[in-house]
Please model this.
Amino acid sequence: MTTTSTGVSASSTRRLLGGVQSDAARHEAVHGPLPHLGLDELLRLVEASGLTGRGGAGFPTAIKVRAVASGARRPVVVGNAMEGEPLSHKDAVLLDRSPHLVLDGLQVLARALRAKRAVLAVGPEIDAGPVQAAARGRRGIEVAHLDGGFVAGQETALVNQLNGRSALPRDPFTRVTESGVDGRPTLVLNAETLAQVALIARHGADWFRSAGTADDSGTSLFTVSGAVGRPGVVEAARASRLRDVLEATEPRRPAAVLVGGYHGAWVPATHLDVRLTRSELAPWNAAVGAGVLYVLDDRTCPLRYAAEVADYLAGESAAQCGPCINGLPQMAADLHRLAACVRDQRLPVAVARMAGLVKGRGACAHPDGTARFVGSTLEVFRDHTAAHLQGWCPSTMRPTTRGM
Ligand code: SF4
Model:
C-alpha cells in the first residue's frame, strides 16, 4: 500500500502525491473545491480523523488547533516546510508535487481561526518556485523563504526567525500557541499535516480513517534513502510494516534501518516486520517522527556512520546551552575513537555516560535526540562495538593495529 515519488506504484493509494504541481485548475479537478468550514466543523472533522502532526512530535492536531483558538487575540497560522533534517525530503517533494494541497490546509485553518496572518515557511533546501506560483492566486497567504539548519525548523526557532530574530530555539516555557509570531497565539503545523487537513476538510474523517488503524489513522510520507536501489518519498498507510514501506525502494543487504532520522533510533534488519507505530517501535526507542528511514547495509560500519552523524549534530547546535557546547562534541569525539578501533575498553561507557548527561538539559530537544541516536547505535550494534574494541570491524572485515 505504497506509492513513491519516483513513480513506482505498489498500490492505488495516492492521496498526497497526486502530482498536479502548481496548476490550480488541475488541482481542483482532482480534489474538488476547498469547502468553507467554520471552526467548530473543522475541529470536529480533524478530531474525528485522529490526525497527528507529521513533522516529528506526532501531537494530535485538533488539540493544537483548539489551544490556538482559545487565545485572546487573532492568531497566526504557520506552515512549517523547513525540513532541516538532511535525510528528509518529503516536504520538498510534497511542495513540488502538490503545493496547492499544502496551501489549502493553511487557508482552511486560517479562515476557520480568523487568523491575522497565514505564512508558509520554506527552508533553503526546498525549491520554493512551485509553491510561490501556486500562492500567487490566493489572497492573504505569505510564503517566507528562511535560513535553514538542523534546528531551524524547531517550532520556537521558526517563530524567532519569523519575528526577525536568528533561528535559535527559545526557552521552552513560553508556548507559541500562547505567544508566537508578532506576539500572537501561533499555530505551527508541518506542511504534510496541512495537506492532510486539506484532504480531511474535503473528504471527511471516515475517508481519512479508511487508511491506517483505529489508533494510527491515515497515510504518511516516508523518505527512504541509504542502501536502496530507488531512494525516494513513499506514501504509505500509517501502521504499515517497515518491510512493506521499504519494498518499493529495493533495499540492498540491509543490516539495520534508522527510523526517525538523525534524532531517531535503529531497528535491526532481523525485525523488518515491525509495524511503524509508537508501541511496536518502543522496544527500539524509535518513533516514526517525520517519516525518515535510512537503510544501512552490512558492508558499512555503523560506528563510522554514527560518528559522522554525531559530528554533524554537534556542529548544528545553536551553541547556547551547556550540553550542546560541551557534551555533544565530546560524545562525537569518543564515538570517532570507537569507530577507529581504538582499543580503549572505557569508550562505550564514556559515550553512554555523556549521552545520559546531556538529556533534558537543553533549551530544546537537540541533545536528547542526539543522545537517543548515539545510545541506539551502542545498543543495536553491541557486537560490532565489541569487535572494534578488539581491533577489527565486522562490516569491512578490516583488522587494525591501533592500540590504546
Ligand atoms: S539545546 Fe542545543 S540546539 Fe537546543 S537551544 Fe540549546 S544549544 Fe541550541
Observations:
- The CA atoms of residues 374 and 403 lie 23 Å apart.
- Residues 2-209 form a domain with the Rossmann fold fold (CATH 3.40.50.11540).
